[in-house]
From TrEMBL:
Pfam family, one: DNA_photolyase
Keywords annotated in UniProt: DNA damage, DNA repair, DNA-binding, FAD, Flavoprotein, Lyase
Gene3D superfamilies: 1.25.40.80, DNA Cyclobutane Dipyrimidine Photolyase, subunit A, domain 3 (1.10.579.10), HUPs (3.40.50.620)
Protein name, UniProt field: Deoxyribodipyrimidine photo-lyase
The reaction(s) this protein catalyses: cyclobutadipyrimidine (in DNA) = 2 pyrimidine residues (in DNA)
Molecular-function GO term, any one: deoxyribodipyrimidine photo-lyase activity
Highest taxon of source: Bacteria
Species of origin: Aureimonas pseudogalii
Domain Photolyase/cryptochrome alpha/beta: 21-152
Length: 464
């Protein structure tokens, strides 16, 4: 078992309680029973203290639901939690789930814990929970990073200009944080656990009993859970990965790993993926480098952005000044096409290629990165103002994508408006913000892509 020292932060440095019943781990960002540094840290401490481990999860519901989450997101999350719970049970680790905020359940259960272990996330709501917990829990609190390869503050303690500035910083530390993490034996099984009020053994029943937005239904294309994530990863490395370098920019090529929803919900570790990619047979060094660039450098650049930008979801704060200025200068430019949110959602625009990509997103919860850029740039072009475009792009992104409401989402939407980019040639509406034309669709086999989308959408709506 290897948990790098740089992943561990002591948030409250007091001795573990001697009269406690268990070591408590709040699973918030890392929802998996294996290759989870926070969980393995809890197991190690529990073994040392001769105590069992209890894992808890707070399920937000109703008016207290996670912002912008809907039935699509919750179905995937609950499938993953059921898989995690089964994995924990096999290891002899207790699991408690309640309809409560993560802070509420952690504060309550920490009263009987020797220490509390947290994992790590960078969204404002997550930071607020951690603040509530550290303010209310009197015992020892340890936070262990497992959502990135290189811990964010080790990579950089400032807002990075772009990939070119953070890349060497991440690569300098990369090998220091890429070690296998095997599940440690649990020496003291959890025979009794605190009471919960959610039985995750039937995730469909839990979903049916929740009060939430059901206008965006669950998808069949992706099933949640760490077991499914590892199955997909193995199948990917045995086949499509071998053409990743040449095919990653072509949606019809099938070279994408589809790991992003599983990463978003913490159902697989990015370090586990990188190690598997390094060990995979087939594929070139160029394929591996390109994959690591996307998974580590680009993804962790987004973590840097949300960690160092207080209001990363606001146009005025997320978009750099030069881009705001040039977009404002073009604000009165004529817009040949203007669409409402409903027209965009239904794919009722003049742009057939955009409509097809929107159908994939609306129905299956996914869209290839190459098309995501085009999709977002066109919303800017078709909106009444840059601020309106930013807000509606983020709104649609977070509503329909399985991996929406993620640091990558907030960062990529802001990139559409100039974040992590530079000025380009001036154009109407965009000013000197990068423009993307319909010609970008000519670089792909669009007929093949459209046929694939039609098949995927049909599978989602097939009653059988």
């Amino acid at each position: 078992m290897t948990i790098e020292d740089g992943r561990v932060r002591i948030l409250k440095d007091v001795e573990p309680r001697g009269d406690a019943g268990y070591v408590l781990y709040l699973a918030q960002q890392a929802n998996r029973a294996r290759f989870n540094p926070a969980l393995e840290y809890a197991v190690g401490e529990a073994n040392r203290l001769k105590l069992p481990v209890v894992v808890c999860f707070g399920l937000l519901d109703g008016s207290n639901g996670f912002p912008e989450a809907n039935a699509r997101h919750y179905a995937f999350l609950l499938d993953g939690l059921a898989d995690m719970a089964a994995g924990l049970e096999k290891r002899g680790i207790g699991f408690v789930m309640r309809k409560a905020s993560p802070a509420e359940i952690a504060i309550d259960l920490a009263r009987d814990a020797a220490l509390l272990v947290l994992d790590c996330g960078y969204l404002a709501i997550q930071k607020r929970w951690y603040g509530e917990i550290t303010g209310a829990v009197e015992g020892r609190i340890v936070q262990v990073e497992g959502d990135v390869v290189v811990p964010v503050e080790i990579a950089s303690d400032k807002h990075e200009y772009g990939a070119r500035t953070i890349r060497p910083k991440i690569r300098r530390h990369l090998d220091d944080f890429l070690h296998p993490l095997r599940a440690a034996p649990v020496k003291h099984k959890a025979t009794t656990v605190p009471k919960g009020d959610v039985d995750i053994s039937d995730p469909a029943k839990v979903l049916a009993g929740m009060t939430l937005d059901r206008s965006v239904p669950p998808v069949r294309r992706f099933r949640g859970g760490e077991s499914e994530a590892r199955r997909l990863l193995k199948a990917y490395l045995d086949g499509p990965f071998r053409s990743y370098g040449a095919g990653r920019g072509k949606p019809e090529a099938g070279a994408a790993s589809h790991m992003s929803p599983y990463l978003h919900f913490g159902q697989i570790s990015p370090a586990e993926i990188v190690l598997a990619v390094r060990e995979a047979e087939g594929g070139s060094d160029e394929d591996r480098d390109a994959f690591v660039e996307e998974l580590v450098v680009r993804r962790e650049l987004s973590m840097n952005h949300v960690n160092t930008t207080e209001h990363y979801d606001r146009f005025e704060d997320a978009v750099p000044e030069w881009a705001q200025k040039t977009l404002h200068e073009q604000a009165k430019d004529h817009r040949e096409h203007r669409y409402t949110d409903d027209q965009l959602i239904e794919g009722e625009t003049h742009d057939h290629g955009w409509n097809v990509a929107m159908a994939e997103m609306r129905v299956t919860g996914y869209m290839h990165n190459h098309l995501r850029m085009y999709w977002a740039k066109k919303i800017l072009e078709w909106s009444g103002s840059a601020k309106e475009g930013f807000e509606r792009t983020l709104r649609l992104n977070n509503r329909f994508f399985l991996d929406g409401r993620d640091p990558n989402s907030f960062t990529n939407v802001a990139w559409t408006y100039g974040l992590h980019d530079r000025p380009w040639a001036r154009r109407p509406i965009f000013g000197t913000v990068r423009y993307q034309s319909e010609n970008s669709l000519r670089k792909i086999d669009f007929k093949a892509y459209e046929a694939a989308v039609e098949k995927l959408c049909a599978a989602e709506t097939d009653e059988d």
